């Protein structure tokens, strides 16, 4: 028995990502894919560093692209709380994909999902959907080529596709994939069909097979495994997947979580709050300065180092320098924390400015012109 479990609804324990990949049956992103991506753009650090580490059918998607068949980019967000760094991380990668391939994008906001799975009203989820959408737009997606699908508003378009998907997924499959029990409400059982729908939407609209790439957290694989299983029966191409690891929480656990304020950095956190939270983050450092100077630290178990590795230090030589100085005991945890806090605060400051600007374009990005 493994000591962790990962479903789209929650993570328990410390994730072993290699084991998870085997469990889900996804494939490692390796040097062949690196070389292919490097043909279109300078390889993104999240690929190079094994953060987007697992995939399905990305090679065939690129074959089609090379043959002149552009793909659709699709990712999403369940609006259950304020946006944090763990959400932003894969969106940065999505932006790189859009910039690299100059392709249209769908961003699905699943207010229906969070209503069904959390103790939230539709009014709550709608409000959070708006706030989350601003954070998404602030990443800098091509405003003309990116559409935001809010499920409760776009249901008229999604529903026929979701129905086709739902008809092909039996309750026993849903139970096996998601672990549903008698106590689950029936909306939860249907929901996976709504998350599959945008992957097939462009094919439906254009009446031809439009390939789709979905870069997202690997916790979403159960949905897309189900979607891929039914795709060909319905005459749609199987969506291709690029999966990332989760940004760890500040306590070193597997995931930042909207429900745990202390281990999570929100986009709206004040500079002071960021410094405080980072100050308490887990580094695995020694108890005394003397000991740390002698023994050195361990970047491998340090959350601060992880954040640099995932998002905040993309210069490889600088990152190596940090690791070297840490192991030698040249730099102490306090200094590392101060440097990272500063980087995060600059990032958040810029983000908040772009987020304000996003209010001017959010209406124009609504799929099907719904009103926010
Ligand atoms: N279920 C996802 C969440 O809870 C939201 C989502 C919808 C999504 N469609 C997606 C995530 C596509 C990644 C890719 O956050």
Describe what you observe in this structure.
The protein is α/β, with parallel strands linked by helices and 372 residues long. The protein is built from 16 helices and 9 strands. The strands form 2 sheets. It has a 7-stranded mixed beta sheet with strand order 3-4-9-8-5-6-7, sandwiched between helices. A hairpin with a 2-residue loop joins β1 (5-7) and β2 (10-12). α8 (151-167) packs across α10 and α14 (303-312) packs parallel to α16 (333-361). The radius of gyration is 21 Å and the shape is globular. Bound molecules: tryptophan. Tryptophan is lined by residues 8, 75-78, 108, 110, 113, 195, 214, 216, 220.
Question: Main traits of this protein?
Answer:
372 residues, alpha/beta, seven-stranded mixed sheet, two-stranded antiparallel sheet, 16 helices, binds tryptophan
Radius of gyration, in angstroms, nearest whole number = 21 Å
Distance between the termini: 46 Å
Describe the largest sheet: 7 strands, mixed
Bound compounds: tryptophan
Placed side by side, the strands forming the largest sheet appear as: 3-4-9-8-5-6-7
Helix content: 40-55%
Compact overview of the structure:
With 372 residues, the protein is an alpha/beta fold.
What's the layout of helices and strands?
Layout: E1 5-7, E2 10-12, H1 17-24, E3 27-28, H2 31-38, H3 45-48, E4 52-56, H4 58-66, E5 72-77, H5 85-101, E6 105-109, H6 111-117, H7 122-138, E7 146-150, H8 151-167, H9 171-178, H10 186-206, E8 212-217, H11 221-231, E9 240-244, H12 271-279, H13 289-295, H14 303-312, H15 316-328, H16 333-361
Parallel strand pairs: 5-6, 5-8, 6-7, 8-9
Antiparallel strand pairs: 1-2, 3-4, 4-9
Helix pairs in contact: 6-7, 7-16, 8-10, 10-11, 12-16, 14-16
Residues 8, 75-78, 108, 110, 113, 195, 214, 216, 220 line the site of tryptophan.
